[in-house]
Amino acid sequence: MRNEKEKTVRIYPSVVCLMMAVASSLEATETAFDPQLVMKQLQELRDNQQRLQQTIADQQKTIDALQKLMTGTVAKSQPPAGQGTAPPALTGAGPNGTPETAAAAVADTVRLKELEKKVDELTESSKKTFPSQFNPAIGLVGETIFSYDSNGNNTTANNRPGGFDVYQRSVEMNLSASVDPFALGYAVINGSADAQTGTANMDVEEVALVTTSLPWGLTATGGRFFAEFGREAYIHDHELPTVNRPLVLDRYIGGETRTDGYQMNWLLPTEHYWSLTAGVGDGMGDKLANPGVYREAGGLTYWAHAATFFTLTPDLTLETGLSVMTTPSETDRGGSITDPNGVSTATEKERRVGGVDVTLSYQPLQNNQFAGITWRTEALRSSSRFQFDPNGVPNSGDETTRFEDSFGLYSLLTAKLSRAWNVGFEFDYLQNPENHRYVTFSYSPFITWYPSHFQQLRLQYTHSDRAGSSLHGDDAIYLQWVWIIGSHSHGFTER
Amino acid sequence: MKNRMLISMPFIAALLALALPAQAADKIRVVTTLTDLAEWTRAVGGDFVEVRSLCTGVEDTHGVPMRPSFLPLLHRADMVVLIGLECEHAFLPALLDVSKNAKIMKGAAGYVDCSVNIPPAEAPRTLDRAEGDVHPAGNPHYNLDPVLAKTAIRNLCAALVDYAPAHKAEFEKNRDTYLAKLDTKIAEWQQLARPLKGVKFISYHNHWPYFSSRYGLQYVGTIEVKAGIDATPRHITELIEMMKKENVKVVVREPQFPEKLPKEVAARTGAELIKLPIMVGGVPEAADYVAMMDYIILTCVNAAEKAHVAAQ
Predict the structure, then answer these.
(1) Interchain CB distance below 8 Å, B75 and A269
(2) What angle separates helix B289-306 from helix B146-163, to the nearest 10 degrees?
(3) Residue A270 CB: number of other CB atoms within 10 A?
(4) More exposed terminus of chain A, fewer Cβ within 10 Å: N or C?
(5) For A380, what's the count of Cα atoms within 13 Å in the CB-facing half-sphere?
(6) Structure ipTM
């Protein structure tokens, strides 16, 4: 009885402290965020936790003392072996009816009660909720590139300056969580080194809402996102199978298919896979189209994509798609462009791009992580309307409208040698969208090592030939190192 | 132009009709991840279910290729049945994200996680990728323990009853029939596996903690350094040294993994190399769950006897 009282006396302050802490936490959630106040509350919670732990330790001592006392009492009160009249289950005596086993049974009962109490406490503690429990999943991707290019970008028009180069191409933070039962939200915040200054520039690469419960197989996406166009254009840089995005996607689309807009996807209600996508946005690629300028409906970018998939054999599959896009302008975003001859300029007024993509994949089901060959080709046609200025002097009266049709493709073959290694080769062909007579060919063998799912090292050599213009060919070597920490799941686009 | 459209419309309608799923009326459409789950769902659901499995049986459960052809199946499913404990983490969440089917999203009634009430083995003390492709909830390969499989089957039955309470009696009768058959075999397997008590073995991937615990084997290592991390020469050297020291004479290779390394390890330690399926259909002999467990236990016993390490 005394022990019970002691227990009550010991528990009471702890319960009061805990209630005070919870009450103060609740108050804190209703007031403005104050780091000092939070630190103070945190310290109080820690103190309470220490007091509780001390109380539990004290209780354990009390229980041990009680057990010893009861064991002794029961042992003394038990009749000698064989003289018991009550059945073993009632007396708590063992099969032999010995006092030791009866005492042990009583001790077990005490332990069981204590265990139940602890389980109840644990169950109660698991019911606590914290505002941070609704925080989104967070992941971080880093991508560093070491490279050597035989020529400077004054003769190659590459993004990077040439020669020996090391740069942090991107640091990408990914956030995602359900918004409510009807949608999920995600954001990709990207920081990358400026090619000229090396300064890291932060950019919101994607931030979008995706519906999860629209009927009839529909999904709506809204915000800033990578539009579904082609096959590789909406994959992030670090997830590409090669170091660089294929030239044709870089030049005809403007890199990734980033846009501010809305997109609707429809999974047809058939047994066969058919997917149709259509969207509207403000430009596509690395910059928005004519921001801040009054626009008619034709001033926006529209795109559509259809895809299907065939299982040719259990191990051999074919995926193919068609894409179309019309965008008011690509180079208008940065003003007119100067022809490689250094004199004439062209200002793009409209571009239409159509493309077809084919992916043939041999993935043996039994050991697809260790073997497989994939061949992928995307071919795009670009039709642009330019205001062409032969002497490069604006409003000099010699400007004309020029239509330019150009064609480009890439063809990629990758082979998985093991779970950790794959090799591949990409061929790029590009007619310059401003002048189809300027042609670039490039050949890129590469090898990739994956020490784990979360780290990769890729070595790539690229030889480029340029014809028709004053630009020179070059040879480049890249070593790309990509790593991922935090939350990361393989999305369907990386299939 | 108008005529052309009129002519083409019946053709398009016919194409759509051909492409539309031939669905038996009123059946519960269930998509399972693994083949074991498909068998159990058919056994319990009987004529009331139409079951499709994403796996054929030969795949690595952590690396099933995400094929677009899975999407129409998932989109039309009333239920998706999974092993759980993050077994399907590499493919199922991404597929569900684009399945456009709220009925089978995590948390919905159609999302049937069979690991409920299964005590997980090897639940990690810390969650850190330094431990490889760690499963945060514990090892997910409980389907290789037939006693735990019973819990999964009960979970499955409860989900079917929840979905179609009108068929409760049929589902429970089917469940009990299947479990009775399994109970008979479990008693038989317990006897059959007696020579495996204390037998030490290694495998390629960490698939066997539940199986070894059930039948008293000693699971002493894996060829992978850690889950999902390929072996290094140093790891193999240490593994071989340990096997020699501990007299480990059985090497298990799951069909999803290449034979070269297990074969080399077995040759250098004088161990027996055996190939064991991890789900129904993994090898031709594993045509159904009972046949699979028969095959696994008999193959292990034969290997232990051949290696002179079987318990007397």
Answers:
(1) yes
(2) 170
(3) 18
(4) N
(5) 34
(6) 0.84
Question: Which member of B56, B100, B229 has the closest CB to residue A217?
Answer: B100
So where are chain A's domains? 2-131, 138-494
Q: Is B129 on the interface with A (CB under 8 A)?
A: yes
For B193-306, CATH gives 3.40.50.1980
- Tens digits of per-residue pLDDT, A139-185? 999 999 999 999 888 788 777 888 899 988 889 999 999 898 889 99
Q: Which of A314, A366, A419 lies nearest to residue B255, judging by beta carbons?
A: A366
Contacts of A453 in chain B (CB under 8 A): 133, 228
B285 vs B292: CA distance, rounded Å: 7
Angle between the B35-45 and B146-163 helix axes, to the nearest 10 degrees?
50
Helix (H/G/I), strand (E/B), else coil: B199: coil
- Choose, out of A140, A176, A212, A231, the residue to mutate when testing the contact with B (most B CBs < 10 Å): A212
Which residues in chain A have Cβ-Cβ distances shorter than 8 Å to B228? 452-453
C-beta atoms of A368 and B60 within 8 A:
yes
Contact, A402 vs A368, CB < 8 A?
no
Task: Mutate one of A182, A239, A369 to test the B interface: name it (highest B CB count within 10 A).
Answer: A369
In terms of CATH, what superfamily is B26-119+133-189?
A: Nitrogenase molybdenum iron protein domain (3.40.50.1980)
Fold of A138-494: Porin (2.40.160)
What percent of chain A has pLDDT above 90?
41
Q: Please identify which residue in the block is written with the tokens 């300029």.
A: A345
Whether B71 and B95 have beta carbons less than 8 Å apart is answered as yes
Taking an 8 Å cut-off on Cβ atoms, the answer to whether B21 and A213 are in contact is no
What does the DSSP assignment read for A9-20? HHHHHHHHHHHH
Q: Does B258 touch chain A (CB under 8 A)?
A: yes
**Is the pLDDT assigned to residue A337 strictly greater than 80?**
no
Cβ neighbours of A184 in B, within 8 Å = 97
Q: What is the mean pLDDT of residues B202-226?
A: 95
Closest residue on chain B to A485 (Cα):
B129
Which of A436, A380, A376 lies closest to A403, judged by CA? Answer: A436
- The β-bridge relationship of strands B49-53 and A400-416 is unpaired
Comparing CA positions, the residue from A292, A296, A321 lying closest to residue A308 is: A321
Tokens for B232, please give them: 């290094």
- Contact criterion met (CB below 8 Å) for B208 and B224: no
Please choose, from the candidates A454, A474, A476, the residue with its C-alpha nearest in 3D space to the C-alpha of residue A466.
A474
Q: Are A483 and A457 in contact (CB under 8 A)?
A: no
* DSSP assignment string, A280-314: EES--SSS-SSTTS---GGGSEEEEEEEEEEEEET
**Residue B189, CA distances (Å) to B175, B186, B300, B308 in order:** 20, 5, 12, 20
Contact criterion met (CB < 8 Å) for A212 and B105 = yes
Alpha-carbon span A327 to A346, nearest angstrom = 17
